[in-house]
Amino acid sequence: MQANIAIGMLETSSIAKGIEALDAMCKAAGVKPEVHQAISKGKYIVVISGPVGEVESAMAKGAELAGNTAVSRHIVRNIHAGALAALNKKVKPARLEAVGIVETKEALPALFAADAAAKAAFVHVAEVNTGKGIGGKGYFSVVGEPGAVRTAVAAGVKAIGEDVVVSRIVIPNAHEHMGAVI
Fold it and tell me: Above 80 in pLDDT, residue 1?
């Protein structure tokens, strides 16, 4: 994976406007769509990646086109490779020790928090779910040494704020069967 990849995240309250915004974003700059999907509550989320300047240009165009349907938008200028790799898929860790999970009220803060968590401690990002099949919520999970997992979970929550978090847990000595869940 190329270093210094930025991501842009846009959530709209309209599926049609979200799709139109994605098209405009891709036409405006050299970005790659990482996630583009309708989620619960009739929302549409878009996650794009590319060089910082390209992502910034694409996000400006997408937000402009989305207008008042834009619910949220964020840019992470140097996404952690592990957070991007685990986006909407499970990445099995080599070893399971402690597990941390942060559940968010909305879809996109989970990715923003997972990036902060991965940068704060030496953990493996196992999954980042941005609202698919879970009622528009989001969550991420990390595994690693218990102290590192605690640090990562705390950093993820701090990055997005307590008011966005539904739940956060740390399982310090996860049972081996948790490997099938995480």
Answer: no
CA–centroid distance for 77 within its chain: 13
Structure tokens at 76: 């992470």
Nearest-5° Cα angle at 91, 78 to 38: 75
From residue 80, how far is each of 71, 112, 155 by CA, in Å? 24, 10, 14
R_g over Cα of the chain: 16
pLDDT value at residue 99: 96
Q: Which domains does the chain have, with CATH numbers?
A: 6-76 (3.30.70.1710), 81-181 (3.30.70.1710)
pLDDT tens digits for range 83-95: 999 988 888 887 7
3-state secondary structure of 144: strand
Which strands, in side-by-side order, build the sheet including 32-39?
A: 32-39, 43-50, 6-12, 70-76
Q: How far is CA 45 from the centre of its chain?
A: 11
Cα distance between residue 176 and residue 131, in whole Å = 27
Rounded to an integer, the average pLDDT of 69-74 is 92
Record the tokens describing residue 57, joined without a space.
Answer: 């240009």
Report residue 3: phi and psi, to 5°.
-75, 160
